[in-house]
Design brief:
mainly alpha; elongated
C-alpha cells in the first residue's frame, strides 16, 4: 500500500466514513459497495496505526473504528 501523510489518511478516512453514512443498501450492488467501503476504512485505519488490517473469518475485514 502507498504511504500517505497522517493528514491525507485522516482526510481519506473522513471521506469513506461520510460515504458510508449516506449509503442506502437496497440491493446486491449496494451490499458489495458497503463491503468495499468497510474494507477500505479498515485498511486506512490500519495504515494510520502502522499495521496490516486484521481479517475475520471467510475473508471479511474486521472493522475497528
Amino acid at each position: 500500500m502507498a504511504h500517505f501523510s497522517s493528514q491525507t489518511l485522516e482526510t481519506l478516512i473522513d471521506l469513506v466514513e461520510i460515504k458510508l453514512s449516506y449509503l442506502d443498501v437496497t440491493d446486491r450492488e449496494d451490499r458489495l459497495e458497503l463491503k468495499r467501503l468497510q474494507h477500505a476504512l479498515a485498511e486506512l485505519g490500519a495504515e494510520r496505526r502502522g499495521a496490516a488490517p486484521k481479517r475475520a473469518a471467510h475473508g471479511a475485514v474486521a472493522a475497528h473504528f
